[in-house]
Amino acid sequence: MKVLFLAAEASPFVKVGGLGDVAGSLPAALAALGHDVRLAIPGYGAIDWPRFRPKPAGTFEVPHAGGVEPGRIWKTESDVPVWLLTGPSIPTDGRIYSASIAEDARKFLFFSLGALAACRALDFRPDVIHANDWHTGPAVYRLAMAARADPFFAETASLYTIHNLPYTGRGAGPYLAQYGLAASPALALLPDWARDSMLGLGIVAADVLTTVSPTYAREIQTPEGGQGLDATLRARGDRLHGVLNGIDVRSWDPATDPALAERFDSTTLERRAANRAALAEEAGLDSDPKAFLLGMVSRLDSQKGFDVALPVLSSWLESGGQLVVLGSGDPAIEIGLASLEIRFPGRASARLRFDPPYSRRIYGGADGILIPSRYEPCGLTQMLAMRYGAVPIARRTGGLADTIVDVGDSGGTGILFDGYDPISLAHALDRAVRVYAHPETWIELQRRGMEKDFSWDRSAAEYEALYREALRYRGASAG
Ligand code: ADP
Questions:
Q1: How confident is the model at residue 462 (pLDDT cuts 50, 70, 90)?
Q2: Which of 63, 126, 269, 421 is the most buried (most CB within 10 A)?
Q3: Which of the listed residues 252, 297, 371 should we mutate to test ligand 1's pocket, taking the one with most ligand atoms within 8 A of CB?
Q4: Global pTM?
Q5: Three-state DSSP class for 414?
Q6: Measuring CA to CA, how many Å separate 276 from each of 115, 268, 272, 295, 406?
């Protein structure tokens, strides 16, 4: 199949969050199954152009109310051929996302519609367009609305993946009209407030919808998890599937990771102690091999559960635990974490920045990794932690529930808790400490986590099956 994969970011070109990881590795896994995959992303100035040496490959035009917006296609490669699209709406300075819907709506409308135009310019006629998140909803909508009149895309199906539902790109109404995306009866499926959201366009128009874990797919169809879009998602429930993200197991391998003091695998777990000691030293913690060294690697955002965690972490440190945190984001959470470090010298450390090599040393050295998320579409942290022998202690929500088996169940790989409250979290930490006191049981937990297959292979095969389903729907609606 010919697949065009659309995303606002993709590693190694430009990465802000988990979407960048997915767009950086899923296309390669699809190509490995024999598909002809092209990845298209905006050609931001933030990309290291000299490093990737993109070559000019063609031009296109995106019509809008003020005339036409000219665009250029630049080709480069990562594991698959990559198109970088540039034009007046794509920032040439360091910016990627902005806080202004005026800027972002134009940027991503131009990108979404430009990607369709680029297919035609390069004569790449995709069987499936796989679009991701609100930035690319307009491509899916345009495809559905214009496909019948346009022989080039008449047989192209769409699959639209929601990575994080609360990000809707709402308020885009005036810009949708400027770029010629007219309202249609399909929008009646959306609540009023979402009819000018770019995510809404993708949700109502896609042949197949996915999100990044089976549990999140169920949660977003409920009033509690649906962010006001649950009724729309229930109405499209027969088209909505949950497909777990994978991780790049080549780059994330404790047996070869140069960031670690000592490399190890599931048969040489005793070597991991050297990483634990090195981590404690790097973080400025007292050497205390008996203490439970708890790690966190996270965006500091209300999604991630710090409001519940901060008071519990104080008690954790008072009762002899240790803590290493890596994260940046919300200043109020940064202050809360910094004050733990000040109050508990030698026991708590907070590094408040983005530091990928240090994250590897936390995964490779901490005893457990705490993930108390309020909600979690999929989550990569828990998979990385398990791969590196750190036991996840996580809230049973979204992808965390789908990737971690509780220690109380057969095949346990971590500790799960249900309530989003300090008591439930404190209880989970108590359970962790009790299991930790039995080294054989603990090592079994670590080993089972390390031996789990979190590679993209299985997910890529699921997407392949859903692409076929999308093509069947497209064929049926065209017929
Ligand atoms: P989200 O996409 O919601 O932030 P995920 O768990 O899906 O959460 O992905 C987070 C990714 O970002 C993981 O790879 C994690 O290791 C990484 N990460 C988060 N914060 C930092 C940080 N401060 N420094 C380095 N890596 C980080």
A1: very high
A2: 126
A3: 297
A4: 0.95
A5: strand
A6: 47, 14, 7, 11, 24
- Summarised one tens digit per residue, pLDDT across range 416-442 is 999 999 999 999 999 999 999 999 999
Q: Specify the pLDDT at position 147.
A: 67
Nearest atom of ligand 1 to the alpha carbon of 164: 3
Identify residue 451 by its one-letter amino acid code: E
Under 8 Å CB-to-CB from 207, ≥6 apart: which residues? 144, 157, 158, 159, 239, 469, 470, 471, 473, 474, 477
103 Cβ contact partners less than 8 Å away, ≥ 6 residues apart = none
- Name every protein residue with a CB atom under 6 angstroms from any ligand 1 atom: 17-18, 297-299, 326-328, 354-356, 359, 378-381, 384
* 8 Å CB contact between 162 and 219: no
What atom of ligand 1 comes closest to residue 328's alpha carbon?
23
What is the C-alpha separation between 138 and 117, in angstroms, rounded? 13
Q: What is the pLDDT of residues 370-381, one digit of tens each?
A: 999 999 999 999
Smallest CA separation from ligand 1 atom 16, residue: 381
Residue 245's closest CA among 459, 32, 12, 28?
Answer: 459
Under 8 Å between Cβ of 62 and 68: yes
> Is 122 a residue whose pLDDT tops 60?
yes
Mean pLDDT of the chain: 96
Q: How far is the centre of ligand 1, averaged over its atoms, from the C-alpha of 329 (Å)?
A: 11
301 Cα to the center of ligand 1, angstroms: 11
Strands of the sheet containing 391-395, edge to edge, are 348-351, 322-329, 293-300, 368-371, 391-395, 415-417
Work out the angle between the directed axes of helices 18-32 and 457-478 (0-180°, nearest 10). 80
- What's the count of helices (H) and strands (E) in the chain, helices before strands? 17, 15
